[in-house]
Design goal:
- The chain is an alpha/beta fold and 496 residues long.
- Helix content is 38%, strand content 21%.
- It has 16 helices and 18 strands.
- It has helices at residues 22-38, 53-65, 81-91, 115-128, 143-164, 186-190, 200-209, 216-231, 238-255, 271-276, 281-289, 300-313, 328-335, 369-375, 438-447, 463-472; strands spanning 10-15, 43-45, 70-75, 95-100, 140-141, 166-171, 194-198, 261-266, 294-295, 317-324, 346-351, 364-367, 385-391, 395-404, 410-419, 429-434, 454-459, 477-480.
- Helix 8 (216-231) packs across helix 9.
- It is globular.
- The chain starts with 9 loop residues before the first strand and ends in a 16-residue tail after the last strand.
């Protein structure tokens, strides 16, 4: 269970236009509550049905007193357009609007609610007041359909709540020639995210201060238990890494201040391993598994993206380089004919060893091969040990990223696909990704819009919720892997 993400407490307020029968909204709201219960979604329904602004204040007060932090406004009939939109303005947290479909051919006089029409006026009034809100793709439905809309709203609300109370803590500037991970932080402040920047020296001093910490033994034992016999290849290294884990956790607790949640973006090379005596990758993976992402190479937007993925999926995530192409002989022998992908749809996602153990097929503590060549001359590894390596488990994935641009705008991308059950025969935490039309997406989104090489990975198809979140946050530039027949604006129509 992730510990560093919010718990969503849903509230429900039903509204009714005063020229319609109030009991119609009352009955339909009660049916929505029952349908939510049947699918395991807890929701608190305000007793006040809103017909006017006074009702609005009463109902909002009810859900606030019930400690609800996310809200559904339900149009049981046409709805009062001013009060219903003021609900969202006065609530202060993420709000979804949904409306009731008509129930029966035999009851289209006294039982007709016209909420299909009312949603149009609701949307118009939200726009007039510039109030952000989630409106589902098909916002008018039966009680069961509305309940499933509400279930789909929960991960969006969880991420929205988390971001508003998130602090990203950084250590060190980006490594030389890694400017791709650098971006203005103004857009993060616009989203309500706080950033605290520190030096590597601050981290090193704190790490040294944790020498002899009485908790090290217990954390090292937990690492040993997680890794098992096959994964624990350097047992003597565990106490050092446990000391570092405690350093980060204590820093988060001491420095989150007014915020409730923390993510890290740390400089992990080239100075780190020699001075600390190990690579930080395994520790980073453990905190990420617990819902506190630690992004590599001081990638602040990568850390925020990972945190979004954790909130939306409720599961461990990772941050990978969109790294290398799949060799032709590998594609021909292991992928072609077995999976419905062209070679251009595939690539390898890799990083040194930050992917959580639970997302690796056969995870082991190893050493950073590239850093070993650079810092230890390719000799027997010493301080370059500490990566967590193995092929990433196959299955559905969502590759995505939130990114600030040089002119302090926000853009993002989302692409769904899968990791193939094909051995990589390579090093690091690595997997063979297959994303439909990846070649075109790579050229006309990742390159054309100048995204950096790091992509956040959520395990499972989470694109719908992530897209809804980005829209709710007011982000206009959202790219996706467009299917064949739908060209990108920059795609050369004469290329084939």
């Amino acid at each position: 269970m992730l510990k560093n993400i919010p718990e969503v407490k849903l509230g429900l307020i039903a509204v009714s236009r005063d020229c319609f029968v109030l009991s119609l909204s009352q009955k339909r709201m009660e049916n929505v509550v029952k349908s939510c219960s049947s699918i395991g979604e807890k929701i608190y329904a305000a007793k006040t049905i809103v017909e006017n602004e006074s009702d609005m204040l009463k109902a909002v007060n009810e859900v606030k007193e019930a400690q609800c932090n996310a809200l559904v406004v339900f149009l049981g009939n046409f709805g009062p357009e001013t009060p219903e939109t003021l609900i969202a303005e006065n609530f202060g947290g993420p709000v979804m609007f949904a409306a009731a479909a008509e129930e029966s051919y035999g009851d289209l006089i006294g039982g007709r609610g016209d909420a299909y029409c009312g949603m149009l006026n609701c949307s118009y009034n939200l726009g007039l007041r510039n109030i952000p809100a989630v409106i589902p793709e098909n916002p008018v439905g039966t009680a069961d359909e509305v309940a499933h809309m509400i279930a789909g709203f929960v991960p969006v609300a969880r991420a929205a709540i988390g971001l508003k109370s998130l602090k990203v803590i950084t250590f060190g500037p980006r490594p030389q020639d890694f400017y791709a991970c650098n971006a203005p932080i103004q857009p993060l402040y616009d989203l309500g995210i706080e950033v605290q920047e520190n030096s590597e020296l601050d981290l090193f001093v704190s790490y040294k201060a944790h020498s002899g910490d009485k908790r090290i033994e217990a954390v090292a034992a937990d690492m040993e238990k997680e890794l098992g016999k096959s994964g624990n290849t350097y047992p003597a290294l565990l106490p050092r890494m446990a000391q570092f884990e405690l350093t980060l956790l204590d820093w988060a607790e001491a420095n989150k201040g007014s915020r409730s949640y923390v993510a890290f973006a740390d400089k992990c090379w080239p100075a780190f391993p020699k001075e600390f005596g190990f690579e930080p990758c395994y520790v980073n993976s453990r905190l990420t598994r617990a819902g506190m992402p630690v992004a590599c190479e001081v990638d602040i937007y990568g850390a925020v993206s990972e945190y979004i993925g954790a909130c939306v999926s409720g599961d461990a995530v990772t941050l990978l380089d969109i790294n290398n192409s799949v060799p032709r002989d590998l594609y021909e022998s292991r992928i072609k004919g077995r999976f419905d992908y062209e070679q251009s749809d595939t690539f390898m996602g890799f990083h040194c060893g930050n992917t959580p153990f639970c997302k690796l097929s056969d995870g082991k503590i190893k050493y950073q091969l590239i850093q070993n060549r650079l810092l230890e001359g390719g000799k027997t590894p010493d301080f370059t040990r500490g990566t967590l390596e193995g092929d990433i488990i196959p299955g559905d994935v969502t590759l995505f990223r939130l990114q600030g641009t040089a002119d302090s705008k926000i853009r993002c991308y989302i692409a769904q696909g899968e990791i193939l059950p094909v051995a990589t025969k390579s090093f690091g935490g690595i997997g063979i990704f297959a994303i439909p039309e990846m070649g075109r997406f790579y050229r006309h989104v990742l390159i054309e819009k100048r995204f950096p090489h790091h992509g956040a990975v959520a395990f499972g198809h989470a694109g719908k919720a992530i897209y809804t979140l980005f829209r709710y946050l007011g982000i206009d530039d959202i790219s996706f892997n467009q299917p064949k027949g739908l060209p990108y604006k920059t795609e050369n129509p004469f290329s084939k």
